[in-house]
Structures are given as structure tokens and as C-alpha cells.
């Protein structure tokens, strides 16, 4: 077996016998090797991915917990209309207007109100 050192680029071959026939396999080898390079093991690569996912989930939970504690800018009490103190009663509906008849109304696109939610 040949050890690659960055200087033995080029065409190489290996010879072997298959069914008593001598065969030669040619291949070209070219690579770049650096001093600080290393081959990462699959377990280490998987561990890095799993730790990244766990770290991301942890940061998401911390952000969720911190934002849940904070309230909105308004007060916590619900909005209530001011009570009237013995003022006049609301006016009765005017008899000048007739209520709408559901059978005579048009069913065009913008003539009906659709409630959502």
C-alpha cells in the first residue's frame, strides 16, 4: 500500500489475477493535503449535528419562557365601558326605517356579510 504525501500525484496502477488472468487496473491520484487537516469520523459528525439540534431547542425554550413572562404594554385588567349613572335611556329604533326582508335582498358578492372566526 502506498502512503500519500502530496508529492506522488499522477497515474498509478495495481496488478491482480482473476481466474488465472493477470489484470492491471490504472487510476489517477491527485489530492491536496494540509498540515491541519483531519478526517472526521461519522460518529463525531453525527454527534455535532445532534448537539446542534439540542442546543437550538434549548435556546428556543429559553426564549419562549422569557417572552411568556412579559406582559403587553397595556394593563392586565380587561377593558370595561364606563357605567352610566342614571342618564337617559338609549333611543328607541326609528319607525322611519323598515327592517330588511331576507327574501327580497340581492345575493351579489358584496351584498352579504360573511363572518370569519
From TrEMBL:
Keyword terms of this UniProt record: Cell membrane, Membrane, Signal, Transmembrane, Transmembrane helix
Polar residues bias: start-end ranges: 72-84, 101-117
Localization: Cell membrane
GO biological process, any: cell surface receptor signaling pathway
Chain ranges passing through the membrane: 42-64
Keyword Transcription regulation on entry: no
GO cellular component: alpha-beta T cell receptor complex; external side of plasma membrane
Keyword Membrane: yes
One GO MF term attached to the UniProt entry: transmembrane signaling receptor activity
Membrane topology: Single-pass type I membrane protein
Residue span of region Disordered: 69-117
Name of the featured protein: T-cell surface glycoprotein CD3 epsilon chain
Organism: Channa argus
Upper lineage: Eukaryota, Metazoa, Chordata, Craniata, Vertebrata
